[in-house]
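Running log. JK asked me to keep both predictions on one page so they can be read side by side. First protein, sequence followed by its tokens:
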Amino acid sequence: MLNGLLTIVLFPLIIVWSVCYGVLGGIFFKLLAVYENWINLNRLQIIQWKRYPLRSYNKFTSAILAHRMKSKPIELIALTNSQIQTEFKREPFPFLVIVVNTLIALVLLPFALLMGAFQGPVFVFRKTWGAWQNILQTGS
């Protein structure tokens, strides 16, 4: 009897707690997730540019070669490749990739924040309600 009365009293408090804390927590943790993803993607690009300069350079020159060879005959591959290698001594810093990663993160941020605002209260309610049910089961 006392457990049922406590449940009736605590249920609205758990809902209010879930909404207040869950919205803020969900938004914060989704913001943190987008930030960590953005940092990791940019760090990956910079590490690949630093650690594997030859592989990265070969990919860079191959992409330029494929673009330039679209309208030329196949016999000019060696000449075009040597022109590209004299024009570009090394691969430039991946500014474009980092800017694109930043723009994508900024576009995804509002959607992630909305998802956090909806998923946070559900998560907090399930955890708090489960803890309350656990207390009731072990206390009886």
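And the second, directly underneath as requested:
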Amino acid sequence: MPNHAKMTAVALVMTIIAAPAYAFRPHIPLDVRAGESPTSYEVFEQRGAGPTHIWCVAADHARRNLDAASAQRIYIFKPLGASQTEPGRQSVGFTLSPAEAGLDQGQAGSGPILSFTSIRQIGASLNLTHALQYCTDHIDVP
């Protein structure tokens, strides 16, 4: 089999495998509210939800509601703390804009790779695909 035929076969298998995974929806009942800009939003903390839950919901919202690409980075512009939109609740503010997270263009692409899931650091970021990996333990099939 020629090399390009093997590559085509591999691509086809990967597409078949990835398509159902993309259709899965995480079952994590955390609220999300739009922020002040079109690319910002808050994910609200709820008892029992940890950082991986919050990153999962943030990524799912970016993918489903903001049409973010798989390589898009999601940034924290407001670490875990008092909500800006709902008094008395705790939330994390996310954005797709590095500028909103206080980063310039040079910092946006060269930030440190997180070895843990921080929700307490402005500018912390993960790409969409990485953050969606935190959803794998919390999936409902549509």
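Observation for JK regarding the second prediction: Confidence is low (pLDDT under 50) at residues 10-23.
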